[in-house]
Every structure is written in structure tokens, then in C-alpha cells.
Amino acid sequence: MEPFLTFDVAGLLAQFGANPFIAMWLLFIYGGWVFFLIAFLWAFAEGWKHILQNKAGAKKEWIVLAIDIPKLSEKDMGQSLKAVENIFAHLAGAHSPISWTEKWFQGKYQDPISFEIISIEGHVQFVIQCLRSLRDLVEASIFAQYPDAEIAEVEDYTKNVPSSYPDDEWELWGTEMIPAGGKNSIYPLKTYPSFEHSMSSELKDPMSVLLEGLSRLDTGEQCWVQLLVLPIDMPEYQKKGEILIKKLKGENVTKPPSMLEKILFAPFNLFILLANELMGSGSSTTDKKADDVAKMKIFNMSPGERKILEAVENKVSKIGFSCKIRFMYIAKKNVFKKPRIVQSLIGFIKQMNTNDMLSLKPEAKQVGINPGLWLFQNKRNNTRRNRILSYYKNRAIWDGMPPYYLCTEELATIWHFPHTFQVKAPQVKKRELKSAEPPINLPIG
After folding, report:
1. Are 175 and 341 in contact (CB under 8 A)?
2. CA angle 261, 289, 238 (to 5 degrees)
3. How many whole angstroms from its chain centre is CA 34?
4. Residue range 398-417: mean pLDDT, rounded
5. What's the whole-number average pLDDT of the chain?
């Protein structure tokens, strides 16, 4: 009986060696066309989605809100950072689930909220950029914690500097902060409870060094700090946290099978299940041994390992966001002093870094300005200057390096209103007086 299917391997190899074009054609007609079709469909779908999102984005209206808060006294110190953490938690309500039809037929997508600290020639201001439709939510979040705050809509400050470089008058440096060593961002940064004295509970504001540096800028200098915060689906964030927690505990973590794998292996899994039931397989014994090993690891954890586990569990228990941090320093060429301000920016973030958990560092290989480039240094860095400035102005969270997870406690540590009795920067914008409504029984006439 002749075989149903024959395949001449020797002849195919001969064709490969004789003519590479014929070889490519044979690969194409014998199944390679499937990969081309998949690649084409994927590119078409992504291009279609991009066109729809551009149309939807062009209709959105963005605003910039400047925030002035009353001077905080020492008695307000313990509640200030917690209040900002509550602001971020409230803003998680901006998340809007997107259906399949909304995504692929309307171009709908989730927009970030940008929390920024800017210094224009030493005058420091806290600002928030968001959709106009989110203004009520943002203002309600702030007024709920700071009833005497003042919020005003202002012009976008990024329009007041050149958009293209090199420029005859201006110079620019910028970078994005990324997890050092590709660390899993489910690990937390050091947060504000770690800055409290264990005995006196006195909090040393980690923002002091940043505001001090920003207030020292001279005429012709500007520095911008951008914290992009994107509300996300909590189940995905919590699932990644649970996987890391299991690994830290020593538990066995298995990747869940895909839908295709479930379909293909369903008969085999059913056969194995029946065999285990009939033959009394020791799978339960194996699982019990694995659980015992995991419990033993928990009991034998060092203080440092237990501290990491508790910190990760604390982060996963809080509301998480997809985030990105950018730094920009723009100045006239005659006053451009990069080391002075850059050291303050990087030093500010390094306060939150830990060697055994999450650390953030400036990116310089793909996006950030890198003076160490060998070939065509000026041209390549100018391309990066234009690109990162465009990313900053557009408040683009998906452009540049990938975003990472930060929880409300981490966000409040990075971006919060300062304590005036600790921060001596004289030009930080604050309200001097508390305004109040007149009494309702005030006599008239």
C-alpha cells in the first residue's frame, strides 16, 4: 500500500541550494502564506485602530489646572500625604471599561491624567493636565481633601518654548525614568511611611530636595516634572501581584493554558483525570508536599525576605495605575546648567529607590538624551530632543519606554503638596490667606 502523503526532502534541499527564489516560493506555497496572512491582518487591524484613535483623540479637549493650596502647618503634616493618596484613589474612578465595539469601531481608549511640577525661572507651580470632561472629578478629589485650595484653568506652559531642535537660542535635556535592571514593577518603591522617624514620627519630606533645586532656577531656565497616571483594570494588576507573591513564598506558579491549548489538550486531560481516579494517583500527595515546602520557606524567611513580601502585599492591596515619569530641563544657551538641576531631579527619585525592591533610573539608550553616543551624537540627540519634547507635550504614556505599575502610596510620595515648615523654597506658589463665606445672618441696610 502506497503512503497517503510523500515528501521529497532531498529534492527540496536541492531546490534550496540551486535557486533561493524557488526555495522561498516553495516555503510560501507549502504553508508560509499563513504567516504572511497573519502579519497582514495584524498590521491592518493595528493601522485601523490607530486611525480611529487619532480621529477620536482630535475631538477631545484638554485643560491645564494650576493648584494653589493653603500653607500647611506642622500639625497638618501627618495627614497631608495621606490626603494626596486619597486624591489618587478617588481619581481611579476615571477608569472606563472599553468594549470590543468601542475599541475597534469608535477608537475609544483610556486617557491618562498628568500630574506635573514646573519651575519657570524659579517660580514653582503644581499643575494637573486632564480632559475637560474630568475637571469636575479632579476638582472634587482635591477639594474633598483641601477645602481651601484654589484651582484655576491656565494656558499650557509647554507652548512657550521652541518645539524643534537644534535651536539658535534654546537648549534642552530630557529623560524618562524606568525600572532599573528591568525589575518587575510590582515590587514597590520606598514610600512616605519610610521617611517617618521611628520614635518621634516626624516626617522628612522627600520633596524638599526637588523643590529646593527647582526654586534656584534663574532667568531663562525652565524645569518640568511629569507624572502620567493611567487608570487600569484592577484584576490584571492584582493577578500579576498574586503571581509575584506566590514566587516569594516559594509556591509553585504555573502559567494558565491558553484557550487553544485547552481545546487541543482537553481529551488528554480527561484521560489523565479518569486514570488518576481509577488508579488512585498520588497527585494529591504531590500537591501536599509542594504546600509543605512552601510553608517551610515562609517559616525560614530572613527578615529582609519577609520585609519584601510584606511590602509587595501592601502595594498589591492598594489601587494601582500604569505610570510614567519624565523630566525636562529647557533653558537659554547662555544660562543652560544641566548638572545643577539634573542632580536634583535624579537625587529626588533615588530617595525612593531600594536595592532589594524597585528602583528607577534615567533612560539613555533609546529615548533620553545621551552625551555618550559615539556616532552622529549631535544629530541623534537632537532627534531625541524633538521626540521626548513631543511626548511630554502630548502627555503620551504609550510613546517612549513602556509604563510601569505604581500604587496610590507611591504616587503620593512622588507628587504631593509640600510642608512649608520643612521646604524653605521661597517661590513655591501657595495661598497665603484662607477665604471664607460671609455669615448667613449678616445684617443688611
Report:
1. no
2. 55
3. 36
4. 95
5. 82
Tell me the three cell numbers of residue 387. 521626540
Query: In DSSP terms, which residues pair with 62 in a beta bridge?
Result: 131
Q: Residue 356: which residues within 8 A CB-CB, separation 6 or more?
A: 304, 308
For residue range 225-271, list pLDDT tens digits in order: 999 999 999 999 999 999 999 999 888 777 666 555 555 555 656 65
**Ordered DSSP codes for 358-373:** --EEE--SSSS--TT-
Average pLDDT over residues 113-125: 95
DSSP assignment letter at 429: -
Buried b or exposed e, range 360-393, using 16+ CB within 10 angstroms: bbbbbeebbbbeeeeeeeeeebbebbbebbebbb
Strand spans (E) along 235-350: 320-332
Contacts within 8 Å (CB) and 24+ apart, 50-59 = 51/107, 52/104, 52/105, 52/106, 52/107, 53/107, 53/109, 54/107, 55/107, 56/106, 56/107, 56/108, 56/109, 57/107
Provide the 3-class DSSP secondary structure of residue 383. helix
Distance CA(293)–CA(252), nearest Å, equals 10
- HSE, side-chain direction, 13 A CA sphere, residue 13: 3
> Is 90 exceeded by the pLDDT of residue 97?
no
C-alpha cell at 95: 477608569
Query: Higher pLDDT residue, 101 or 323?
Result: 323
Lowest mean pLDDT among 69-78, 103-112, 212-221: 69-78
> Between 37 and 129, where is the model more confident?
129
Interval 345-391: pLDDT, tens: 999 999 999 999 999 999 988 999 988 888 898 999 999 999 999 99
Give the whole-angstrom CA distance, residue 443 versus residue 445: 7
CA-nearest of 142, 118, 91, 46 to 392 is 118
CB 222 within 8 A of CB 289: no
Asked if omega into 20 is within 30° of 0 (cis), the reply is: no
H or E element that contains 89: helix 77-91
The packing angle between helices 234-249 and 283-299, to 10°, is: 80
Residue whose C-alpha cell reads 541550494 in the numeric block: 17
C-alpha cell at 88: 489618587
pTM (2 d.p.)? 0.81
- Kindly report which listed range (116-130, 153-167, 234-248, 288-302) carries the lowest average pLDDT score: 288-302
Question: Which amino acid is it at 395?
Answer: R
Indicate the domain borders of the chain: 117-125+156-239+306-414
